[in-house]
Hints:
With 679 residues, this protein is an alpha+beta fold. The protein is built from 20 helices and 26 strands. The longest helix has 31 residues, at 374-404. The model is unreliable at 564-568 (pLDDT under 50).
Amino acid sequence: MSKPKRYLITSALPYANGPIHIGHLAGVYVPADIYVRYLRSKGEDVIFIGGSDEHGVPITIKARKEGVKPQDIVDKYHAIIKKSFEDFGISFDIYSRTTSAIHHKTASDFFRKLYDNNRFIEKTSEQYYDEEAHQFLADRYITGICPHCGNENAYGDQCEKCGSTLSPMELKNPRSAISGNTPALRETSHWYLPLNEYEDFFKEWILQNHKEWKHNVYGQCKSWIDLGLQPRAVSRDLGWGVPVPVEGAQGKVLYVWFDAPIGYISNTIELLPDRWEKYWKDEETKLVHFIGKDNIVFHCIVFPAMLKAHGEYILPDNVPANEFLNLEGDKLSTSRNWAVWLHEYIEEFEDKQDVLRYVLCANAPETKDNDFTWKDFQTRNNSELVAVLGNFVNRALVLTAKYFDNKVPPINKTTDCDNEIIGQISEIKYNIEESIETYRFREALKETMNLARLGNKYLADTEPWKLAKTDMERVSTILAVSLQICANLTIAIEPFMPFTAQKLLKMLNASQYKWSSFGKIDLLKTGNNLGKAELLFDKIEDDVITRQIQKLEATKKSNAVDNCKPNVLKPNITFDDFAKTDIRTGTVTDCRKVPKSDKLLQFTINDGTGQRTILSGIAQYYPSPETLIGTQVCFVANFEPRKILGIMSEGMILSAEDTDGKLVLIQPSRKVQNGTAIG
Length: 679
């Protein structure tokens, strides 16, 4: 694609059943905002589309639990989420929602176009139905025993214990989450998007034409395409969502995965009712989706298939998805309250939005999952923002106030040292541009900080405070060059730390510059008055960080207490029921991570009669699986063998959850003979 005439930037629609946390900000919204602010600074025609995803089963579940309507839930959290984005400077051109009238019409029209053009197939299947509640049950409304790990509270779409993807029919002893009854199977009809018909298209469009996409994105797409794409339902039986606009489809709504991405289109229509088509239907527009890795398939395969089936829309040029951010070594979890919530951060760290933006970008999970810790947050603030960026700006301004009455001094004759510094500004500009335009924001931020480091080194090497005794003409040049670096810094840091950029501009008594001015050394005019010098950043003390760590520890203890409450005991069983379970001991002869899985370990176990392979979803708790070789474990020997990721698993290894929420292997207190039965 030649240089685009315009840019259309979208970011994943956050789900409006709770507030947002640092994982959302790091994975999606800070990178998207950096990219958009950079494009705006360059004078590009760009719009930034955001909004809340407000349909789907989790909304109805939360509403049922709280005894309110689904609309009450989404109204509450849409407002919280929108304000959090505003507080952190995420500069959407529009932040709307999928419950809007415009969205309902847009999604209905989109479906109807595909329906009228015979782009769907209709299939009848048996699905679980709650006869007491008089409704079909969505996957999340069905719970039962996981066929892989035995978790008795697995959902119909996923077991949150072992991470396995499930279908309701795979659950043992299924029950309705609404009434608690055993559901019945009833026939129901739905429409499906035949993704299999687009396989050849995706092999060319992605696998051949988009090899420049990030490895994690390209790899996940290739895996899906290589396994063979399957038809995907676009409707479901539910009372909350966009009604299916077909006669006889009462009680059916568009599946949330189908309706949500259309929100990008409907929000653009709401923003630009007379010009929206230029951004969605003109080949000279560059469309970029910013998402997390859990949304790769939807934005690279499913949504493009929808757009392709429609026939009038452009396809995304890039989908720079990030991996996940963990918190203090543990997976972020809304249900366990294991998170740093943005609306709480803004109350506890007033005027420190940019500190969090900086830390999340510097530690962004661009190529692998990464970890946020409060100690690292403190270190980066104190050692980088305060000691490098803040220190340089403060020294330049304070020395100017002292020696030149707070006015910009002239640049007199420059030395080789000065010219080298000036030349490096342009080099840094080029490096930042190259990094941002290839979606390497962490690297771009590092280059930005190199500009501040350059200024610090320049002052340290030239020592103008010593020269002031003998050569004020030289001091004038040094401080003038330093102030011009400060002015260039306002351009460089604005995409990353917009609040800090405005604060620095005020201290320089200057207006915001365009990107084209980056690299010039006449941004501040000689003789201009500067504003009052202030500290750009404050040091964060140990007691502040200690409070945050204690807050997380309290959450962990609360979760442990909840897990130990008597009401989590399972129903009584008979001895005959227990006798059916064959639990034995075995020695681990080999243990390794399963390729393409973050959760699974592959155990080879000597069970007393030979070797057997068992997969277990405990990889995150045993980062060095080879250390388990030679240890004894307990396992269920008569679990029905099941193929997972192409590997046949012949049992289930027993583990327990400790008070920290981590899984630990159940092991004999002393070595016993392999194959010894437990009971």
